[in-house]
Design goal:
Elements: E1 2-9, H1 16-27, E2 32-38, E3 41-47, H2 54-57, E4 61-72, H3 75-83, E5 96-103, H4 114-128, E6 133-134, E7 141-148, E8 151-160, H5 164-167, H6 184-193, E9 201-204, H7 211-218, E10 222-227, H8 230-242, E11 249-252, E12 265-268, H9 283-297, E13 303-309, H10 314-321, E14 323-334, E15 337-346
Parallel strand pairs: 5-6, 5-7, 9-10, 9-12, 10-11, 12-13
Antiparallel strand pairs: 1-3, 1-4, 2-3, 4-8, 7-8, 13-15, 14-15
């Protein structure tokens, strides 16, 4: 049964959080309709059951909530919206609750005082549910309001996502470190873009320190890793063991001549820069060859998510091979490098 939900998203990237949430719903088979995209908020209609899956998979979703109302971010309109909202379905007799109001930092100048609004809303809710009670420390229910785009999006918090686990897997926390290693959050997001799913096989033909394999394994994928450098294969194995992950295979091999017949999806960040790390090919040649291998290995309708320098124009390469370009996102790394995260699908 469809419900009105909203997701509070990370502000770390302007486009990836929304696309990641949508990719997760598509991968897990939840039909959805986007109601509105706001600054760090995605409002949609979908099955409420999805809130059990999105927090487990997502890198850039902060919380999921059942939407109760949306109003202009001023006291009069907010209190009017509360009076028109029925709380009987979400707040039972004897249950305790708390109201928390947050604002997206871009809207810090909004005239509404969040602490004052929490008190006002708490009082109004008690009028609708006199059998309920306020508990600021251990409430049965938490009502959450987000001020963004001069609106208040208000609802019942269903689940919250901690980003702590990703910080525990950042590159320098792993026993084998390499400066080119991809952050855990970005690796997880790319895994989601590729529509990776539990018990399906994901391949990273430039597995490096294993960031992609670790994130894919944590959502239940079977993982295969390839690297042309023995030191990287051994280091990747060391990192996987540290996180108690058993790969289906780690191979010392040339990513341009992959020793497989079929995989379900591919996620990778090829090396760019020195000829020693790019198998004595230019970055363009290497990306072309790897995408050609992906086209051979992937079934129709399956995806590859690949990172490359923005200057490479990877979209043109993928389309020339025969892929459909689904989307691209851009992640700033440093002054001379912005990554393009491109998603392709085999038609």
């Amino acid at each position: 049964m469809a419900a009105k939900l909203f997701f509070l998203l990370s502000g770390e990237n302007p486009t990836m959080p929304v696309s990641e949430a949508r990719a997760i719903l598509e991968t897990e088979g939840y039909p959805y309709t986007v109601v509105e995209e706001m600054t760090q908020i995605l409002r949609l209609e979908t099955e409420a059951e999805c809130v059990k899956v999105v927090p487990v998979r997502s890198a850039f979703t902060r919380l999921c909530a059942l939407e109760l109302f949306v109003s202009n971010a001023n006291y009069a309109d907010i209190l009017k919206a509360v009076d028109e909202t029925s709380f009987s379905d979400v707040l039972k007799s004897g249950e305790s609750f708390v109201v928390r109001i947050n604002r997206i930092k871009n809207f810090a100048d909004n005239a509404v005082n969040t602490m004052e609004l929490e008190i006002k809303l708490g009082r109004q809710i008690l009028k609708h549910a006199p059998e309920a009670k306020v508990n600021l420390k251990q409430p049965d229910k938490t009502f959450i309001g987000i001020i963004t785009d001069e609106k208040l999006v208000f609802g019942l918090k269903l689940t919250e996502v901690s980003s702590k686990t990703f910080s525990e897997r950042r590159p320098r926390k792993k026993p084998f470190f390499h400066p080119s290693a991809m952050p855990a959050k970005l690796a997880r997001c790319m895994v989601n873009f590729a529509h990776a799913k539990a018990e399906r096989t994901l391949l990273d033909p430039f597995c490096g320190t294993g960031s992609t394999l670790i994130e894919a394994a944590y959502i239940g994928c079977n993982v295969l890793g390839v690297d042309a450098a023995k030191r990287m294969v051994m280091g990747c194995r060391r990192n996987l063991r540290f996180f108690n992950i058993n790969a289906d295979g780690l191979f010392l091999a040339d990513a341009r001549m992959l020793p497989f017949f079929k995989v379900d999806c591919m996620v990778t960040d090829p090396p760019y820069g020195r000829s020693a790390s790019t198998l004595k090919s230019t970055t363009r040649e290497l990306v072309n060859d790897v995408l050609s291998s992906a086209f051979r290995l992937l079934p129709t309708g399956h995806r590859v998510c690949i990172a490359s320098p923005k200057t490479l124009n990877i979209k043109a390469i993928g389309v020339s091979i025969g892929f459909k370009h689904v989307e691209s996102h851009f992640a700033y790394v440093h002054r001379t490098l912005t990554r393009e995260i491109a998603v392709f699908e085999k038609e």
